[in-house]
């Protein structure tokens, strides 16, 4: 009997045979044990045309009870009464009255952004209590959000969701998918899949100079801002947490300005004659560096060349503080007595020496 059969439906049965006549022949039928789904109906329609039928009392559900057995008992009214019985076996035929059901409404998976193509992100699972084809389930990606439809693929049989290409946390830190499960009878269900992309330290910090003052006068006062720069890292968490340092410098220091902005400032008087150029570099002997806290650690660098302008802060110096020379009294006017020499550590016009 199909499980979708309407209550009140009737199913004819073969009646019992009794060789006696009158009250001694079959008079009534019953079911044992009593059954909540079926009752028995019997009687005569015309003349000796007797009938016996099973009557369905309530809807069947194959998923609750696929088969049921009971006895049909025929009783006469003789003295003593006699009875006979026959076993009735009811087989409930499946109808696709159940849609697939996912084990979760929302599946959440985490995947490293450097996982290779073909990696399994997670597996969805839907069940269907129907039998046969009606219980066979296939999976499809449905209503993918954004670029997710080209990034993932699902195995229609196992429900495994795999990568079709590497992910990039910096492009998108999560993906939202919809998966549809469809049974052989066309009924379906949908679940949501959230894929969280886990950041990998695959980006080095960047230093971007936004303002820079060079050349600098050598009489620049300590605390003067020479350069303003920002540091950034596209990674997140510890992978994107940056520390910036300036090492091995007596004339400059770094000063945090705002958030990820830093200022390069002078900390002592400059002297062009001592050091005409200050090269702040991050090559081996790291002087200006930005380093993240990822694993492995990545760092970025930039080179800043500061030129110091000359100031007339040096007086000419003679090669000797005292020149001693002997002159004969009969030397002619205009004769060279001696030559003095003075130098100036400044440059350009500041270094041009005149004698008087």
Automatic annotation (TrEMBL):
This is PCDB1 protein. GO terms for molecular function: calcium ion binding. Residues 1-102, 103-207, 208-318, 319-356 form the Cadherin domain. One of its GO terms (biological process) is homophilic cell adhesion via plasma membrane adhesion molecules. It comes from the Eukaryota. Keywords: Calcium, Cell adhesion, Cell membrane, Glycoprotein, Membrane, Repeat, Signal, Transmembrane, Transmembrane helix. It holds the Pfam family Cadherin. Its main location: membrane. Gene3D superfamilies: Cadherins. The gene is Pcdhb1_0.
């Amino acid at each position: 009997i199909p499980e979708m059969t309407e209550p009140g439906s009737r199913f004819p049965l073969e009646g019992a045979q009794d060789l006696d006549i009158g009250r001694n022949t079959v008079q009534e039928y019953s079911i044992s044990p009593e059954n909540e789904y079926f009752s028995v109906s019997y009687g005569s329609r015309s003349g000796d045309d007797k009938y016996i039928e099973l009557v369905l009392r309530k809807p069947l559900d194959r998923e609750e009870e696929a088969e049921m057995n009971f006895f049909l008992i025929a009783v006469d009214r003789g003295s003593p009464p006699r009875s006979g019985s026959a076993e009735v076996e009811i087989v409930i035929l499946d109808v696709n009255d159940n849609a697939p059901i996912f084990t979760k409404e929302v599946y959440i998976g985490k995947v490293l952004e450097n996982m290779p193509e073909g990696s399994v992100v997670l597996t969805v699972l839907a069940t269907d209590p129907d039998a046969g084809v009606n219980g066979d389930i296939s999976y499809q990606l449905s209503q993918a959000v954004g670029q997710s439809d080209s990034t993932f693929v699902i195995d229609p049989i196992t429900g495994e969701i795999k990568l079709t290409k590497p992910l990039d946390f910096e492009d998108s830190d999560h993906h939202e998918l919809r998966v549809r499960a469809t049974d052989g009878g066309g009924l379906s269900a949908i679940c949501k899949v959230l894929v969280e992309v886990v950041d990998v330290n695959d980006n080095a910090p960047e230093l971007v100079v936004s303002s820079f003052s060079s050349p600098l006068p050598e009489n620049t006062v300590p605390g003067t801002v020479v350069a303003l720069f920002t540091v950034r890292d596209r990674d997140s968490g510890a992978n994107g947490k940056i520390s910036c340092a300036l090492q091995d410098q007596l004339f400059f220091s770094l000063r945090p300005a705002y958030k990820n902005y830093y200022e390069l400032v002078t900390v002592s008087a400059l002297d062009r004659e001592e050091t005409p150029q200050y090269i702040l570099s991050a090559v081996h002997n790291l002087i200006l560096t930005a380093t993240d806290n990822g694993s492995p650690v990545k760092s970025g660098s930039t080179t800043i060349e500061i030129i110091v302008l000359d100031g007339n802060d040096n007086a000419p110096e003679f090669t000797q503080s005292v020149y001693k020379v002997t002159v004969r009294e009969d030397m002619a006017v205009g004769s060279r007595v001696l030559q003095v020499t003075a130098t100036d550590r400044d440059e350009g016009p500041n270094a041009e020496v005149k004698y008087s």
